[in-house]
Design goal:
Helix content of chain A is 26%, strand content 49%. By secondary structure, chain A is of the alpha+beta class. A 7-stranded antiparallel beta sheet of chain A has the order 3-4-5-9-8-7-6, with helices on both faces. Chain A has a two-stranded antiparallel ribbon with strand order 1-2. By secondary structure, chain B is an alpha/beta fold. Helix content of chain B is 49%, strand content 11%. In chain B, helix 21 crosses helix 24 and helix 33 runs parallel beside helix 40. The two termini of chain B are 52 Å apart. The chains are: A alpha+beta (174), B alpha/beta (1305).
Chain lengths: 174, 1305
Amino acid sequence: MLKTLIILSFVVLSFGVKALELKKNTRSIFIEEKTGWRLGKDLFGMPFIYFSPESNGQRSNISFTDTGADLEVDVNSLASTQDKYQANKKQWAEQIGATTQGFVPYDVSTNKHGHKIHSIGFNYQHEGESYNEKSFYIECRGKILFSKSLRVKENHKHDKEFNDLLSSLDCGGV
Amino acid sequence: MKHIISIKLALIMLFTSLSSWAPMVEAATKKSNCESGECIPKLIDRLEDVGALYSAQCLPKNIKHEDIEKYHVKNGLSEQCWKYITEINHLESELLAHQNKLESRIGCENGECKAPDDSLNSQLGQLSKVENNLSCNETKKAEIRNQCPSDLTCVMVSSAMGMGGYLAEVIVPAKSKPKGCHLGNDSCLTQLATGFLRAAITFFDGAWDLLKIVGTKAGKKMKQFWNWVSGAENHSSSSQLAMAKASKDPGIFDQLVSDFPGTMKKIWSAFVGSMKEWMKTQVFCQKWAGVPQFSKCLQSTDSFDCLPCKTLVTGLCSVSGTLVAEVVPSFLTGGLITAVKHGAGGAVKIAKLFRVSKKAMAAIKASRVGKIAIQASTKADDVLKITRGLVVAKTVINAALTAIKTYLLSPARKALKVSYTALINAAKKGSVSIAATPVGKVLIFTGTALKKTGTVILYPIDNPLTTFAYKSGVRTFDNALSFGRPTLGAQSAVSLSLTQRRPQLETILAKIDEARMAAKPNGDAILKLELQLLNSVEPIRLDAVKSVLGKTDVEFSEVIKKLYPELKYDDLARSVAPEKILKVERELYLEISKLPDSPHKKALMTRYQSHVAQGELRAKIVGEAKTPFDVDAIPAEKIAANENFNIPLTPEIAVKKQAIREYMNAGFEEMLEKGRQVESKILKAKEPVVYDAIAVGAGPNTGVAVAAIKEANPNLKVLVIESTENLGTFHRVKAFDINSAEWIGNSGNNFPTSPVQLRDFNINNASFPTAEELGHVTQATFDVAQPDMIFNNAVTKWSKEPTPGAWPAKYKVETSKGHVIYTRSGIITPGLGTPVNRLRDAPSIKLVSTYEEQAKAISLAKDAKYVPRFQDVETYIANAAKDQKLGRQAVGRYKGKKTLVVGDGDGGSIGVEAATGLNKQLNPNCIKTDVEVVWMGQPAKTGTEFFSKMSQGKNFRYGRIGEAIDDGRVKTVNGYLQRVEEFVNKSGETQFKAFYTAKTGEAIADPVIVDNVVFATGYTHSHKTVTPFFQSMTKNSDDISFVPLKGSINDYTRFEKMKTATPHEINKQLMVNGSKEDVYLLGIGSKTPISKRKFKAVTGGFLDLTGPRAAATGKHVAQSLAPQKISKGKMISLLTPAKGKQLQFIKRPLRSAKETPLNNVELATIHSKLEFGKTLKNFKSAPNSEFSLTITRDLKGDYIYKVTGLDKASSEKLVQAMSQNHRLTNGLDKQMHFKQNKIVVTATTRESGAIRLENLELRTESLALKEPIPDPAMNISGGLTKFMSPTLKTAGGSKEDRENAQRQE
């Protein structure tokens, strides 16, 4: 396994993009390192949060968590029950005094390392600012990797960064 | 400290409740009260005014003090001046009394004397200490603020250490935990902090644990993915949003990213601080500007500021889970920057961001912390209120005392005092006289001043009598000192009523007043005098109170003080037996009740009720005894009605009575006509005429029984056979009141189970019902029940003879007119039956028997020989009016004649009333008849003796007889009648010799000779009258007997005493040859245990007792006639012929086609009512209430009960009872098809709160037309909901619900 990781790192580096290792306990994942971004660790129990540079008054962020859950996700089921996700989000928004503005429907894609990414999103307004939040459940070597991106509406440019990060995400194998 | 405060407060509260603090506080604001000296300024004003008048009019200008006495001796004192000076003296006494009281209340302020513990100063001192401890002042707030950080750090550290591992490492300082922080792992304090830390630091990590477990087990089959990740989703959303917001401030963002645990420690205290602020201004806001939680809080609960942080956190222990789940996210997402920047100082701002669900809000409100803060706040408020009240009271008292001192030391007052002393001295030195002078009357002190004398009474001016005279309003010499006889000239109405009857009472009254006015009243002396007064007043007070209550100027307080001193409930009352107190309470109540309606009566009654109302004082004397005006007591109007018994019939009432009579007569004629038609049908019938029940005798008890049968099942055919053309003994008797010892409407003759009540006919509304009215009720009862009835038919034979074609009848009944009718069951109500009296000789028995045959009972109206000339009330009224107009006495032609009444029961009493003209109906104008009555069997020799043997109820009823015994109109003979001989006297008139024995059995030689005889000897309750009916059922009449019929009359009586938990004897059931027949014996002939005396049955008047039993029997009959399901086995056994015999089939014609079988709904109604009866037997709710129960069935098949009209507890009880009776609901469903219908049950409750089953109504309503079948999810009262999964109850479900669901999955 270590061998594979080294090879992959080498491949990434050889393309001129610097990889950032997110290591928790004995497991690591690699994402593309972004210039000006800052990595926070163990904030609110989340192992890694990657913060963009300040833009429009705030930093966008994306978290990465290895859930350790060993399962395969049933695509059909995720699609058909996404109303549960939406209901839960509405409830949460209400709890913190936010207003739900819309949802990004469930989707599934595969990144360049062959990891299947299930995504779903939700837009809300809190204290006068609109936020776009998107959750990603990444199938990583039989385990589920969780990632969530958050930005204010105005920072749509960070979507590309988020996509890059997710696309570059590699945990080895498929 | 808190403990000490609580104890102190409790003591203060206790002391407050026991002492007069509360009234004192109120007194400070009430002008009419002088507890705190409010009346003093007015009193001093008056004193100064009168003093000024006295000085100006009664003393020379500039007179020296030492000359005043001389001046008075020389000039005496004019009437006006006497008035002034006595008034001044009186007012000053009052003032000084107030001064003493106020001084004792204020206590010692300067430490010159020892202040009593209950003085205002002492109380204020204690309260200020308590207030200081309780109130949330700035100093205390500052202390708490300073203490909070260390408390919270301690909590945080303990929590972190409890959690151990990474958290402990990052939170707990490297050195060690803080000193003095000794929290155990299980401390409640740590829970909130743990929750907070977990939410902030470690929760997210664990949020995936469930997913891991489920994922392993479920694999691809996992369907609830979004549910499993909801916790992690929420947490990450909150956290990332918090961080996004924190990034607005580079410094804070940096701080968080660099040292997250350290920053969290800092925001922890901000969190607790904002919690406190939030609870103070949002959760426990006492007054909102608009909609709660959404508008501004106008009045927050400031006591939260003084709540130590440890206490706050501890108090939130029970809701820490809720707080962490709901408050922390809004705290983190909204207040992170403020919290990091300002710590606890940002609490106000952060608190505004908190949002929680209603459920969480309710949980927080119910938590201990809320209670602690509110309690502290309330206690502080209470103490503050008391303190403020006392301060006000103290100020008022001080002002009053200052005013008093100023007045007492004033020069003007000194002159008056000197003058008064001079007058007293003058009075003491010489005799006091009144002289009539040209300038008016003058009080003189020596003969030297007397120029022209009048009649003089020697009397010292300051004696108690004159003082009392002044108090009583006497303002002149003449009234105060009546010449030669010292009586009170202007007494109050009450005093006058007493002294007119007993002049010596004046002295006692004066002495009592003097004793009460003394500077130091002597309680023992006053008690002694009051006892003396009571003993003297008692014999005359009823008379006195009657004379005085009607006067509009009578003072209620005077009535109590002088006529009923024991009703002050003080020491005097303690020396009187409680029963006696209750008796006089009632006596006074009755007298007030008797007054004609007027504002005066209303005022008196109000005063009475407030005086006698249940209170501590009264309770000490009579315990919890009810007052005369309590709900269960006899209503005043009824008592008044009884008292007004002798009110003459007014023309209006006579007209109404006539109208009712005509209506009822017409109705009865119809009834007779219908009876003839029934009889005709029976005669013409070609097939056997079969009834479900035949009732013999058409009296009131039969009416009730038949009504009960018809109510239970209107389709049952019932025939009533009556031997006369009357409906019972009293039906056609118009001239008598019903023989009842009870009050109308209260008990006797209320005829409780009849569909029609006596009061429906008693238009006088102030009298006992008449026999005629009872007759009307009986008739109306039959009208309601609508049985077939035939008259002038006596039952001659009752046999058990199965007749072909008469199936399913069991009995054959033959009447005196030869009718043959068949029946399934029988009700026999023989009424009074054959008279059996104490006569022993044949001629007497014959005489009585003849009489009884003619008239039954005591009705003299049927025999002209014994009866006055009138035949009915109208004639009597007309004649009486004529007699009165001509100055003649009613029934004057019987004057001087004698009537013998035999029997001392109620019947005898009626006979006596009738003969003596004391009966209202016979003699509405109460004119004396001068008919002499000999009352045999009555032991009382005097009216008093007569009364003493009677119950109070009977006193009302027969009170006038006692008077008649005393005035000789009634002579009593205490013996037994032996025989009666008829003879013609020397004047050629027919008379009777009535021989009798003493009750000891000793024969009395001389008979009583009388002109008329009234027998009121009562009747046995043997079954001789009915036994012959049944003799054909057996060869040996000994085989006929009547055995107790067990049943319950609970549903038919409102007398608790008659109710029993288990069925008991209600009537008799016929038994022939050892087997019970479907024949029942009702009424007084049924040996119903009414009278304690052996061989005595009562003559009417006790329908309250027999009626419920008759109704219960009717119900029993109806039930026994209800269609019975026969088992297959039973059917086979019935159809299997005996060995050696063949089964014979008898061709029986079908019953009349007109008889339609009961439809499903009717059957269901009957069965359901029975089941309801069983189910709700022990159900109780509010008395006399109405309610309805709707039963439906939802799509899932569950029964849904909805109750309206009952309180929540009763509704739940009802629904529970109903839910448990599957037999009932299943039965209902089968019969009534719930899917299409709903069933509405309406019912009322009795006085006892039990359901009035006889009024229970059941109906169906089509659901299709009215409303849709209810959705099970909406049902709240029963049915499916309780079995539903919690997640199905609400859309989305709570977190807890989801977790439960997760576990289930």
